[in-house]
Structures are given as structure tokens and as C-alpha cells.
């Protein structure tokens, strides 16, 4: 039997994650049956579960993949940019990312075991946000009268509010100025400038 290349395995894993993202966003965790996962990925259950131990492992890998993507954007451009991309639909999977994020939030409320497993993975977004803010403070761009941990919590709370807003089906096309205000709130204001 010929060996399968790592590139092929990586491509297959990406295919599973991308198809599953759509399935979980559309049907939720419980509604994403194995049959629906097969249809969404175009692969058999054997192929899917060759790469992932079970449905929860698949969902956690998907949520972790989204968290890594967000952390990368945060490290380069900040958490407000993640929110701008979500509003603009510029991210790779904006609606599907929102569905995954909402499903994570629901499971965190209702599933203590999931909460424990997710806690290990979710810290990377907080760390990326805190590190970005520290770099901005060192560069003199961040206000210095508020602790970085407080600013981190503030930005994460705004993100959660935005996710809730969009989850309720409310429009987001007029929220650009709100995100401008959020960004302005964490910036350092130099003497002689207007707020």
C-alpha cells in the first residue's frame, strides 16, 4: 500500500475542518450528525474520524483553528481588527466563524467537561491581545492610566458583545464608528490633542 504524503494528510484535514465549520454553523453541535458531516466534507465517516477521535475532538480542533487565526490577526493588527473583519465579512469564513463562536459560547455554559478542555485553548487569544497591548504601550501608543489586563478584558468584552449583536441578527454595517470609538478609548492621548 503506498504511503500518503504529509501534504495530502494536511489537505484532507483542512477539507474536514472547512466542511465541518459550515456544518456546525448551520446545525449546531448536536445537529451536526455524522451523516451531515459526511455531506459537508464530502468524505466518509472513516476518513473524518481517521483524523479526529470523535465529534467533540473535531469541534475543538475547529474552534482552536479559529482561535489561532484570530490570535494571528490580533498579534499583527489588534483585536479591534478582528471585529472589523467580522463586520466586513473580510475574514476567510465570517458567518461560519460566528456560528462556531456561538456554539463554543453555548457549550461553555452547558458543558463543564467542554469548559475545562476549552479553557486550555482559549487563553491564546487573551495572551495575543495582552502582548499586542504591551507592545503598543512600549511604543507610546496605548494609554498608560489603565492596566493592560483591564484593557484586555475591555476589548474581549466588546468582542463578545459584537458576537451577541450579530447572533441576534441585528445589522452590523453601521458599527464602524463604534469600533473607532473602542480603538480611540485604548489609545494614548497626547497633550494638546482633542479627544
From TrEMBL:
Is Membrane found in the keyword set?
no
Which residues, as ranges, make up the DNA-binding region of this protein?
A: 33-52
The cross-references to InterPro entries, in alphabetical order and at most eight, read: BetI_C, DNA-bd_HTH_TetR-type_CS, Homeodomain-like_sf, HTH-type_TetR-like_transc_reg, HTH_TetR, Tet_transcr_reg_TetR-rel_C_sf
Question: Keyword annotations for this protein?
Answer: DNA-binding, Repressor, Transcription, Transcription regulation
Answer whether the UniProt record assigns the keyword Transcription regulation to this protein. Answer: yes
Q: Which residues form the HTH tetR-type domain?
A: 10-70
- What is the protein's name according to its record? Helix-turn-helix domain-containing protein
Taxonomic lineage is:
Bacteria, Bacillati, Actinomycetota, Actinomycetes, Pseudonocardiales
Amino acid at each position: 500500500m503506498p504511503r500518503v504524503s504529509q501534504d495530502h494528510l494536511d489537505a484532507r484535514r483542512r477539507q474536514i475542518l472547512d466542511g465541518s465549520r459550515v456544518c456546525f454553523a448551520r446545525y449546531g453541535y448536536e445537529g451536526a450528525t455524522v451523516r451531515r458531516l459526511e455531506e459537508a466534507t464530502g468524505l466518509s465517516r472513516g476518513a473524518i474520524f481517521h483524523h479526529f477521535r470523535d465529534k467533540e475532538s473535531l469541534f475543538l480542533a475547529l474552534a482552536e483553528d479559529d482561535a489561532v487565526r484570530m490570535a494571528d490577526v490580533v498579534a499583527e493588527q489588534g483585536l479591534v481588527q478582528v471585529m472589523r473583519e467580522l463586520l466586513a465579512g473580510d475574514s476567510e469564513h465570517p458567518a461560519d466563524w460566528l456560528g462556531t463562536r456561538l456554539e463554543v459560547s453555548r457549550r461553555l455554559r452547558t458543558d463543564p467537561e467542554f469548559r475545562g478542555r476549552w479553557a486550555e485553548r482559549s487563553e491564546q487569544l487573551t495572551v495575543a491581545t495582552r502582548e499586542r497591548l504591551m507592545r503598543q504601550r512600549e511604543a507610546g501608543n496605548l494609554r498608560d492610566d489603565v492596566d493592560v489586563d483591564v484593557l484586555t478584558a475591555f476589548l474581549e468584552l466588546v468582542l463578545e458583545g459584537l458576537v451577541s449583536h450579530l447572533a441576534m441578527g441585528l445589522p452590523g454595517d453601521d458599527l464602524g464608528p463604534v469600533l473607532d470609538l473602542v480603538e480611540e478609548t485604548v489609545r494614548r492621548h497626547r497633550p494638546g490633542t482633542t479627544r
